[in-house]
């Protein structure tokens, strides 16, 4: 049994201008903050529930911004807060993968 039902890692890696794409340059910090607030407002946060974490580079920069949800090992990309809300509602609440946002391995 896991300590958390879902552990969500947001890549917040920041590269220097002129280097390859990084998630922080694609709005990842704001998305992470939004996800944390949304999970708390739905009372999903904490042991037995959902943990939203910062991560360094997850090495899928060109597909980013990216998050990965464990224990399912599901990788997602997103554009805006509505995508984050859909991931929270569908994956974290209802247990359904959001195929349109899912990254293929």
Could you give a quick summary of the protein structure above?
By secondary structure, the chain is α+β, with helices and mostly antiparallel strands.
Provide an overview of this structure.
With 105 residues, this protein is of the alpha+beta class. The protein has a single domain, classed as Glutaredoxin, CATH 3.40.30.10. It is 26% helix and 20% strand. The chain is built from two helices and four strands; from the N terminus they run E-H-E-E-E-H. The chain has a four-stranded mixed sheet with strand order 2-1-3-4, covered by helices on one side. Helix 1 crosses helix 2. It is globular, with a radius of gyration of 13 Å.
H/E series, N to C? EHEEEH
Using the coordinates above, name the CATH class.
Answer: Alpha Beta
Mean pLDDT over the residues = 94
End-to-end Cα distance, whole Å, is 25 Å
CATH topology: Glutaredoxin
CATH architecture: 3-Layer(aba) Sandwich
What fraction of the residues are assigned to beta strands by DSSP? Answer: 15-25%
Number of domains as seen in the coordinates:
1
Strand order of the largest sheet: 2-1-3-4
The CATH homologous superfamily name equals: Glutaredoxin
The main β sheet shows up as:
4 strands, mixed
SS summary, helix count? 2
Radius of gyration: 13 Å
Total E-strand runs: 4
